[in-house]
Amino acid sequence: MTPTGRTTPSSSGPAPRGRAYTPGVRSANSKAVTDRGRRTLQLTITIEPTADLPTITAATDHVCHDLARALRDPDIATRVHLHTARTTHSGPRVS
């Protein structure tokens, strides 16, 4: 976690299970906030329009559980903002 409370993915090692290996997830980020005095992890996830919602939901549940376990705080709150992309991702642009 950075000094500003944001979590950042590591570029040296395997990517988090829920984000990197879930088909239909275009992007994801997280940050730690205090909401009404309670420590909260806020996840923002953008999915493809064709993503399978039960798969996304299961992966999100796993990530929230894994984060609480890694922080050794089973009572930490989580908030998930799920956004659907307007168009299907066609891959990286090359110029």
Describe this structure in words.
The chain has one domain (6-84): Cation efflux protein, cytoplasmic domain (Alpha-Beta Plaits). 23% of the residues lie in helices and 33% in strands. It has helices at residues 17-20, 53-70; strands at 6-7, 25-35, 38-47, 77-84. A 4-stranded mixed β-sheet has the order 1-2-3-4, covered by helices on one side. The radius of gyration is 14 Å and the shape is elongated. The model is unreliable at 1-19 (pLDDT under 50).
Q: Which series of helices and strands comes N to C? A: EHEEHE
CATH class: Alpha Beta
What composes the largest sheet? 4 strands, mixed
Helix content, binned percent: 10-25%
Query: Total strand count, please?
Result: 4
How does the SSE layout of this entry go?
Layout: E1 6-7, H1 17-20, E2 25-35, E3 38-47, H2 53-70, E4 77-84
Parallel strand pairs: 3-4
Antiparallel strand pairs: 1-2, 2-3
Descriptive key words:
95 residues; alpha+beta; Alpha-Beta Plaits; 4-stranded mixed β-sheet; disordered N terminus
Briefly summarize what is shown:
The protein is α+β, with helices and mostly antiparallel strands and 95 residues long. 23% of the residues lie in helices and 33% in strands.
